[in-house]
Fold this sequence. Notes:
Blueprint lengths: L7 E6 L7 H13 L4 E5 L2 H7 L2 E4 L26 H13 L4 E6 L1 H11 L5 E5 L15 H22 L2 E6 L6 H10 L3 E3 L7 H14 L5 E6 L5 H12 L3 E5 L11 H19 L5 E6 L2 E6 H5 L7 H10 L2
Parallel strand pairs: 1-2, 1-4, 4-5, 5-10, 6-8, 6-9, 7-8
Antiparallel strand pairs: 2-3, 10-11
Helix pairs in contact: 1-9, 2-3, 5-6, 6-11
Bound molecules: adenosine-5'-triphosphate (ATP).
Amino acid sequence: MEHQSIKRVGVLTSGGDAPGMNAAIRAIVRSAATRDISVLGVRRGFSGLLNGDMVELSGRGVNGLLPRGGTMLYTARCPEMHTDEGLEKAANMCRYMGMDGLVVIGGDGSFRGALALSQKGIPTVGVPATIDNDIVCTDYTIGFDTACNTAIDCIDKLRDTMQSHERCSVVEVMGRKAGHLALHVGVAVGATCTLLPEHDTDFHSAVIEPIRMGRLNGRNHHVIIVAEGYGHAQDVATQVEAATGIDTRVTILGHIQRGGTPSAQDRVIATQMGYHAVKILMDGKSQRVVAYEGRSVTDYDIEEGLSREKHLDLDLFEVEQTVAT
Ligand code: ATP
């Protein structure tokens, strides 16, 4: 049942940015506007909330936002939210600004902030957005597909030059402590091997042996994907060069993976999630996180959602191991 008492909601982006955050903001503003709910865009994450750094967003104000990377609201980390004074200040600001609810677009840290605010009486909903896809209660996080495509595009270009010079390329892919991004990229570029934090490997059998097999199968160049959480790409390259004698170069893709216009998948899922976030608040619910499960959008209690465990896609991992060389 929809609660007509909701008159104004806030929206902020927090933690690391991800392509599709703008698409989610647009969907939230448009979904609210059609129900005569006004939207306050809070700039610079929770620090903007503490400082009252906000702007009224209209349906027209988000025109042209859908294909834009980054976040029009800026994003930041805010250590003050870890203190009770900071949380009180943030909750009081929500009340002072007349917010009947707050949508937090970000990662699991941002959802802990949303959870703490809901415990102070502010209805909150989290929308998962991070290129790492490491949020436990959802199969998908906004930005993941675009980041995969960006990494693939860069590695395809690298491959051209590696092939010409018969080199080995060691490429470090983002993902913090999780290997989801690296695994998908490794499969998509046909890497010789992919090194993941979740998988404890014997270096020789995981890296050197696939290179040897690749050579026997006629490969004159090699691509090794190293997940950020696995270790340093340079250490991997040094060991490869020492063991094989192949000229080996390191590329750290870095923040380029966070940029760019969102893919079709990120635009669609961000739009669905933004719409659901407003609906959840209108249904009078709080302390929820929007999640993608199977092929549909659902929601969980934030506390319950964050206490789940997320595992690497073992089926995809087996595929990667099988077809790599
Ligand atoms: P990313 O996955 O890109 O790192 P994130 O949302 O996990 O995104 P964090 O830096 O962990 O990023 O958190 C963003 C902000 O959320 C913090 O700077 C802080 O303001 C708030 N936050 C994080 N954890 C808590 C917590 N336990 N209580 C209150 N607020 C928190």
